[in-house]
Design a protein that fits this description.
By secondary structure, this protein is mainly alpha-helical. It has 6 helices and 2 strands. It has 2 domains: 110 residues, no CATH class; 102 residues, no CATH class.
Length: 212
């Protein structure tokens, strides 16, 4: 999970899954579902099977390039292991999503509307546990004008953001099993809180720092 080329292995696995499933799938497949579990987006079989492998390769290349072009590239050496854990966790999540789309296309009863929020919740928990280890940079983490202007604001905001992501991820994972009205309220509320509080906090901390 800490390898910089782990994504290519996952992409190869996604390609193998696509090749195996291709003859068994219908010409048109559902590729997107609404929050109530209704398919609302469709693609050709070829595109549905190709898009994730393409994205996985592109993301692997991108994650390898970002540390080289970041103005604060020297900080990556301080959290390189965490950087690749975060990058590869996102890549594995996409592979799981790819597998679910294939399974649904093959006719299996896949509760996308339940499994995806569960997966997002678990991903949040994982990422939140490592967020505090991310050093100031321009591409990974909570990047606001105020966290990028102060290393102290960056670290304090990421402590809060990491805790919120873990708590929010647990709520999302649990809400996946609740009745749909409760799930929708919890899902939207949790995402908003996890996103907004660190932004507001970073501004407040920066203002306090400037006043000193």
């Amino acid at each position: 999970m800490r390898s910089r080329w782990f994504g290519l292995v996952i992409a190869a696995l996604a390609v193998a899954m696509s090749i195996w499933a291709y003859p068994q799938l219908p010409p048109t497949m559902a590729t997107h579902w609404s929050l109530n579990g209704t398919p609302d987006g469709f693609s050709s079989r070829l595109w549905a099977l190709a898009i994730v492998p393409i994205v996985l390769v592109a993301m692997t290349v991108l994650f390898n390039v970002l540390p080289k072009v970041d103005p604060r590239r020297e900080n990556y050496a301080k959290f390189v292991s965490t950087y690749w854990l975060i990058a590869n966790a996102v890549i594995v999540f996409l592979l799981v999503a790819h597998a679910m789309v294939i399974a649904a296309g093959l006719g299996f009863s896949v509760k996308i509307d339940r499994l995806m929020p569960l997966g997002v919740g678990l991903l949040f928990v994982f990422l939140g546990n490592y967020l505090t280890r991310v050093e100031p940079n321009w591409f990974i983490g909570i990047r606001t004008p105020w966290t990028l202007s102060s290393d102290t604001v960056w670290r304090r905001t990421h402590r809060t953001g990491g805790a919120l992501m873990v708590l929010g991820g647990l709520i999302l994972a649990i809400s996946a099993f609740l009745p749909r009205p409760a799930f929708l309220v919890l899902f939207v509320t949790t995402i908003v809180i996890v996103a907004v509080i660190p932004i507001v906090q970073s501004y407040i901390l920066w203002k306090r720092e400037q006043s000193k």
